[in-house]
Design goal:
By secondary structure, this protein is α/β, with parallel strands linked by helices. Helices cover 33% and strands 20% of the residues.
């Protein structure tokens, strides 16, 4: 239970997933993010997936949502693009999919 004066820290932009040109010691796996959050007393995080930026947008978004589903303190940030590219669903379908996966906001990429 939180007491008066207790602070909650939230990471506003965490990323998981491998990416090009990262330092070899850089953490990128979910278990590493959770360990670092615990070490730094961070209570929650908004998380995006590097896969949705460098590979396929929707498969990266879906993999992210599945990976963080068991963690009530992690919140997905989905990357989206204009639906006319054919890489994401039309707006109404995207909104339904986001609600189904408890995504509260997209990152416009």
């Amino acid at each position: 239970m939180l007491m008066m004066g207790d602070l909650l820290y939230v990471d506003a932009f965490a990323q998981i997933g491998p990416r090009l040109d990262k330092h070899p010691a850089e953490a990128w796996r979910l278990d590493q993010l959770l360990a670092e959050m615990s070490h730094c007393s961070v209570s929650g995080a908004l998380v995006s997936a590097t896969q949705s930026v460098c590979c396929d947008v929707m498969s990266g978004n879906m993999a992210l949502s599945e990976a963080i589903r068991p963690h009530r303190n992690l919140f997905a940030i989905w990357n989206v693009m204009p639906h006319r590219t054919g890489e994401v669903p039309a707006p109404a379908d995207l909104a339904r999919k986001m609600r189904r996966h408890n995504v509260r906001g997209p990152e416009i990429g």
